[in-house]
From TrEMBL:
Residues spanning the membrane: 12-31, 43-61, 73-91, 103-126
Keywords linked to the UniProt accession: Membrane, Transmembrane, Transmembrane helix
Protein name, as recorded: Membrane protein
UniProt KW Membrane keyword: yes
Organism, scientific name: Methylobacterium goesingense
Phylogenetic classification of the source organism: Bacteria, Pseudomonadati, Pseudomonadota, Alphaproteobacteria, Hyphomicrobiales
Length: 132
């Protein structure tokens, strides 16, 4: 493992990667915490902020250019922002079961599965984890 490809990548990618990694860690912590507590709500706000930052910062990353400067990954970012809004609205409306599944879906789809796509050969995170 080497951080050199990430260090050489520029501030937008660095901030994007850091926020995603923090989002994975805080999301896992959130699953372990008691639900409905003030701590859960506070950490949830931080996590939503991180995920929104990850989605928004993706628009400053243009490694995969499929439609102008954008790729299918940017479509996932738009979807993530919309689902975040839905998840927040569900919690505020007291629809906790729906909120739970929405947020679990965001964690799995918006961070874990999307994160796996960063490990495709040739991408920066692939080089971070798998460079000799």
């Amino acid at each position: 493992m080497t951080l050199e490809p990430l260090i050489a990548s520029g501030p937008v990618i660095q901030a994007h990667a850091l926020a995603a990694i923090l989002g994975i860690g805080l999301g896992a912590l959130q699953f372990a915490m008691p639900k409905g507590t003030p701590g859960h709500r506070q950490l949830g706000r931080v996590w939503v902020g991180l995920l929104a930052f990850v989605a928004l910062s993706s628009f400053g990353i243009h490694e995969l250019r499929q439609v102008g400067p954008f790729s299918w990954i940017h479509g996932l970012s738009i979807l993530t922002l919309g689902v975040l809004a839905v998840g927040i609205a569900l919690a505020r409306a007291g629809r906790i079961a729906a909120h739970r599944w929405t947020m679990i879906g965001l964690f799995v789809g918006g961070l874990l599965i999307t994160g796996l796509f960063t490990l495709v050969p040739g991408r920066i995170m692939y080089r971070v984890f798998f460079s000799p």
